Amino acid sequence: xxxxxxxxxxxxxxxxxxxxxxxxxxxxxxxxxxxxxxxxxxxxxxxxxxxxxxxxxxxxxxxxxxxxxxxxxxxxxxxxxxxxxxxxxxxxxxxxxxxxxxxxxxxxxxxxxxxxxxxxxxxxxxxxxxxxxxxxxxxxxxxxxxxxxxxxxxxxxxxxxxxxxxxxxxxxxxxxxxxxxxxxxxxxxxxxxxxxxxxxxxxxxxxxxxxxxxxxxxxxxxxxxxxxxxxxxxxxxxxxxxxxxxxxxxxxxxxxxxxxxxxxxxxxxxxxxxxxxxxxxxxxxxxxxxxxxxxxxxxxxxxxxxxxxxxxxxxxxxxxxxxxxxxxxxxxxxxxxxxxxxxxxxxxxxxxxxxxxxxxxxxxxxxxxxxxxxxxxxxxxxxxxxxxxxxxxxxxxxxxxxxxxxxxxxxxxxxxxxxxxxxxxxx
Length: 427
Fold this sequence. Notes:
Elements: H1 9-28, E1 43-53, E2 61-75, E3 78-93, E4 96-99, E5 102-115, E6 119-136, E7 141-145, E8 148-158, E9 161-172, E10 185-196, E11 219-229, E12 232-246, E13 251-262, E14 265-278, E15 281-292, E16 295-309, E17 312-323, E18 329-341, E19 344-355, E20 368-377, E21 387-395, E22 399-406, H2 414-420
């Protein structure tokens, strides 16, 4: 596995000089303040997006990546991170086109060598594994090691929320363990992201009872959407009713019906969900039945929502789709929502699906994987009506959505609406 750790020499030397300069600066700075972030016991969920241009033999290849991670600081300024990654290499090498998707798992150590009340500088070192849909680099394998190291800046944006900006040197190769050849990728690139500090769990806001709907009993959500799926457009809508089932036990139920016109046929769906809601999140069990022409599908889902702090929410979903005229599939995903203002929410994450009978096969048979990007905005003049506009799309699948939403009587800030008005199923 020696080849796993061989990085591009010139890029490595450049980054080592940067780290050396940063260490000298940190030693010459005044003592640290008595109280700051990144102390023993702190947890830190992170989300980053970056681009890593290749160098050397990989100079015509770029890798775009998304990372979702969670760090634990076992000593002051020193944290251990676990990360889920989505890679999208594209370009060419030796006349071979590169266009694939890879999923990765990595672990890293992060050291904040310079810490101030409003910012810190850090260095990190990590090692992971990646599985791709196609061999990467060309003539290699679908499975690679992914050692990386880099430097970064963490700057406080608001309470419990920090902006991350960093440089990362990434190496990918199979370590000569799977095929005779050991083609590798080396690149130096940058990333930006958000880090959250969990633990702040705002109480559920008081219910508004001034309207005959959307109060402490029945909550209503109405959606109208225009979707572009593959080469077709679809116009549809949905009605969702959410009400308490056993208030003392914080149990709720949700009924929903949706319909859309697609290639001259109607795609319809009936949904029933039960969930328990607390100040820290939700645990959701769901069932739905979908019909389109002669096709029928039944969905069984488990969804977990975790409120990280006053501006962040983490969502995990897993489920099974049973089909009458096609192979069953298993799907899942991990998503994060950031409420950057009361009127603006940003959402992204990694999702996958595969046929059920291949679930325990290697990742080479992964049917589809991609990451989702979405934004929701509530104009101030229409906030009291619970009106918002949202856009969603992604890389790895050809589906884009624009929609409008009404959630009357459920608060002005989007964060409160999303907590009080039930949830949106993830598939």
